Each structure stands twice: as C-alpha cells, then as structure tokens.
Amino acid sequence: MAKIRSKQLADFVTSYTLGTAATDILNAAAVSTEISTAVGGITTSANGSIDSLETQISGAISAYTSADTSIVSRVTSVESINLVQSTAISTAVVNDAAHDASIDSLETLTGTLATKTSVDTRVSTVESVNVIQSTAISTAVANDAAHDASIDSLETLTGTLATKTSVDTRVSTEESTRLAADNSIAANLSTELVARSSADASIVTAYTSADGSLTTRVSTEESTRTAADSSLTSRVSAAESTQVADNTSLNTRVGVVESVNVVQGSAITSLELAIMEDFEMIAEDKTGIVAAPLAPTVYTLANSIQDNNENLVQVYVNGVKVKCTVASGTSATVVADYAIDATDVVTFWYQKA
C-alpha cells in the first residue's frame, strides 16, 4: 500500500509541473499555502502512522491482505481523479502559452498600455511563489521517499494489523484532504483564467482606444497639412504672379531709363564737345594790315587752327563779322566786303589745335 501511495504522490508531482503552470495562477500564494498545509498534514499523518505500525507490526499481514483490496480500489479512484486533473492542468498550460504569446505580441506594439506594468508585476509575483512551491514540493518528495523506505521495511514483516481501521480512516481522510486541495487548485486556476481573460480584454480595449485616437489625430493632421499646403500654394502662386508683373513693369521702366540714358549720353557728348570747343577757343587781335574790298588777306595767328577748318574761325573787323575762307596751320585768309585800314582792329576767335 505504501508503494501505491508513494507512486500516486510521485505521479501527481510529475504531472503537476508548477514551474509551467505558475504563470497562469494569479493567486498562487493561496495555492502555495494549501500545498504546504497538505504536505504538513501528510507528513504528520505518515509519521504517526509509522510509529503506530512499528508497535503493532506482528499481526499486520493477514489484516493487511483484506485491507489492500479496498485501498487499491480507492487509490485507483484517486489516480483517475489525478489523470483528469493532469489533463485540465495541461490544457491550462497550453491556454496560458497562447495567452502569453498574445500578451507578448501586444507588449511589442508602440504606444503606452496602462496594464503592462500590472502584468509584469503579476508575472513576477507568480514566479516568486513558484520558487517557494518548488521548494515545498521537493521537500515533500524527499519526505515521501523516506516514508516509502520505512513502509517497505514494515511490509516485509509478518503479523496481524490491529490498526486496519485506523489506516482506512487516515487514507479516507487523506483522500478527502487531497480532493479538497484539488478542488481549491481547480477553483484558483479557474479564477486566474477568468482574470487573465479580463486582463487580455482590457489590454485589447486599451490598445484599440489608443489606435483609434492615433488614427483620429493623424487624420486631423493630414487635413490640416492639406489645407496649409493649399494655402501656401495659393500664396506662392500669387507671389509669382505679382513678381512677374513687377518684373514686366521694372523691365519697361528700365528700358525707358536706358533710352533716356542714350539720349542723355548723346546730349552730354555734344555738350562736352561744345564745352571743349569753348574751352579751346582763342581770341587774337590784329592791326596794321591794309586790304582792299573782297581781296583775300592772309593773317598769321599765334596757334594752329583745329583740323584746318575755316568754320572754326570767326573774324570781326571793328566788331563787324567778316568771312574766313581758308584755314591752314596758323594762317587764316579773310575776305571783307569793304576795305580794311591799318588802324582797323581785326579780331580772330578760333579753336586752336
């Protein structure tokens, strides 16, 4: 019987891998307390049973044979229950893996999820409790191995078990305790699954809300940008039109100014020539020369005449203008309609070379 109980406990510990299931249990602290209580009860009960068996071992064999059938039947029932629980836990582990993948996917998205810190804290708490539970289960396995060794030594002895009823009672009590613990674990696991589903829904809601807000803001920004671009395009087009008109007007005005400059340049050139001519004009008076009317008379001047041009020589006899017919070097030929006496003043106004 001890071997069967040991195998039952070992199978349960092997199938119920808390290292995997811990992430699914939000209230793992309560589960840890229940497991610790169950282990303590098993240890206390087993120690008392061993002490009682060691004092009454002489008649154990005959009574043990009839009790064994009942115990095997009940152990079989417990194993069946354990199989159902193991299947449920495996299913919960698979669901938890899917939940974890969903949460990991959500946590990689951009934005601020209000529940991220809460999920991290809960996972950290479960991981801490998992360490405590693993230690408690390791201790229970070690104690169970010691109990197996003690019970195996007792099973080799012959005698009559007078305490069969006591063993049955304690096994029944253990079954009840185990069933209550299993029900508590199932209830806590169900609570965690509900809480995880609620948390997932909350995360999805928060993400959906954030995504909707972002979409609205992006749409608003696009509308604002479109309006601003249209306004800027209109203003640039208006500025370009104004610039073209201004350029046309400026080109026209520049053309007018350039034309005026050409006219002014010509006038300035003429004025400069006139000024230069006036600046280079020389006046000389000649007397003592006698000339008959219409007789060409040559006068020698102090300076050469510009370009030998007679038109640049003006001659006056006593203030009356007469004609210069020839200019050559310093010589100027004068023809008067009247006679010129020696006392007459002949004035030359000419442009020197």
Describe the structure.
- The chain has 353 residues and is α+β, with helices and mostly antiparallel strands.
- The chain has two domains: 2-223; 279-351.
- Helix content is 71%, strand content 10%.
- The chain contains six helices and six strands; from the N terminus they run H-H-H-H-H-H-E-E-E-E-E-E.
- The chain has a six-stranded antiparallel β-sheet.
- Helix 3 packs antiparallel against helix 6 (164-280).
- The mean pLDDT is 80.
List keywords for this structure.
alpha+beta; 353 residues; rod-shaped; 6 helices; six-stranded antiparallel β-sheet; 71% helix; 2 domains
Characterize this entry briefly.
With 353 residues, the chain is of the alpha+beta class. It has helices spanning 2-15, 18-21, 28-55, 60-107, 116-155, 164-280; strands at 281-286, 297-300, 313-317, 320-328, 331-335, 346-351. It has a 6-stranded antiparallel beta sheet.
Return the string of H and E elements: HHHHHHEEEEEE
Give the helix level as a range of percent: over 70%
Give the overall average pLDDT.
80
Structural class: alpha+beta
Can you count the helices? Answer: 6
| Rg (CA only) | 66 Å
Number of domains: 2
Largest sheet: 6 strands, antiparallel
**Oligomerization category of the chains in this entry:** single chain
Portion in strands: 5-15%
How far is it from the N-terminal to the C-terminal residue, by CA? 154 Å
Low-confidence stretches: none
| Order of neighbouring strands in the sheet with most strands | 1-6-3-4-5-2
Please state the overall shape, judged from the principal axes of the Cα atoms: rod-shaped
Quantity of strands, as a count? 6
